[in-house]
Inverse folding.
């Protein structure tokens, strides 16, 4: 119902509207049970739209050991005038779609135009959604992929090669992906850095989208220190992104050095990069992205 192209357009609009203060995206409320689930509640509204959305997400990386999803999401959509419920959307697919679109918007803005090799660490739903989205913003001729499960990564590579008509190659280590890629996507459940930041070559653009809790991260402090860092939300970065909070607590970075993606969409001169600069986009997901896509879905349904 929502195409990849539509999702990228809508997400770009959501970031822009938020930066222009034409959208409401209060900081998410979250509850973390020791040894159990972390639950997030995320309301949002784009001014002028006919709906508001409230996303409820449940996260437990250890669910993988139980053969259960590590992330589960539901979006509740209400009429913005009356408060009546319009829809309840089981939103795992929507989440993957809008997260990939968000990464595509950031990559289009920050990655070198000459980027040819895409590296992906992770082979789950998020990784799968990212490939077609990123192919829309850069002409990758080669895609490298790694996950710890060899059978899974081989199957992912074969399946994706057929879908994209592009070479998708499984690799034997995350280091091999990192050292050979111009653009990286980190889409894992890892609680600790996936590789040494020194391995990332100058000019690489990195998208870290997996970890979204204060004590979890996919990249180390060295990589964050080496990078021009852009986040989806300063408020969320300061409260719950371990990729940002841990190096900040260590004194490796200053929060003042971070930029928001929406700000850059309005004024690209806020970040001046050259071909040797490493850029890092850290996202944990904004409710306004869900809201704008949910509103689009409701609009389509009302015209059927």
């Amino acid at each position: 119902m929502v195409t990849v192209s539509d999702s990228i357009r809508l997400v770009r609009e959501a970031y822009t509207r938020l930066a222009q203060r034409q959208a409401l995206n209060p900081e998410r409320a979250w509850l973390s049970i020791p040894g159990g689930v972390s639950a997030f509640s995320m309301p949002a509204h784009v001014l002028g739209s006919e709906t508001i959305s409230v996303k409820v997400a449940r996260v437990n990386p250890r669910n993988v050991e139980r053969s259960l999803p590590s992330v589960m999401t539901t979006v509740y959509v209400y009429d913005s005038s009356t408060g009546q419920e319009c829809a309840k959307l089981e939103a795992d697919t929507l989440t993957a779609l809008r997260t990939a679109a968000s990464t595509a918007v950031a990559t289009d803005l920050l990655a070198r135009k000459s980027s040819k090799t895409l590296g992906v660490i992770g082979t789950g739903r998020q990784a799968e959604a990212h490939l077609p989205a990123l192919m829309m913003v850069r002409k990758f001729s080669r895609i490298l992929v790694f996950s710890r499960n060899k059978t899974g990564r081989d199957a992912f590579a074969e399946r994706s090669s057929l879908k994209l008509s592009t070479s998708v190659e499984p690799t034997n280590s995350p280091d091999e992906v990192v050292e050979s890629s111009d653009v990286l996507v980190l889409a894992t459940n890892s609680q600790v850095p996936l590789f040494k930041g020194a391995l990332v070559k100058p000019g690489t653009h990195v998208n870290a989208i997996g970890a979204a809790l204060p004590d979890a991260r996919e990249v180390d402090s060295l990589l964050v220190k080496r990078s021009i860092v852009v986040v989806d939300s300063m408020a969320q970065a300061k409260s719950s992104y371990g990729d940002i909070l841990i190096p900040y607590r260590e004194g490796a970075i200053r929060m003042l050095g971070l930029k928001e993606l929406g700000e850059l969409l309005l004024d690209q001169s806020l970040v001046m990069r050259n071909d040797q600069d490493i850029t890092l986009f850290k996202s944990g997901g904004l409710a306004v992205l869900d809201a704008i896509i949910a509103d689009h879905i409701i609009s389509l349904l009302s015209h059927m």
Summary: The mean pLDDT is 94. DSSP finds ten helices and 14 strands in the chain. The CA atoms of residues 98 and 136 lie 14 Å apart. The chain has two domains: 4-94+288-302, 105-285.
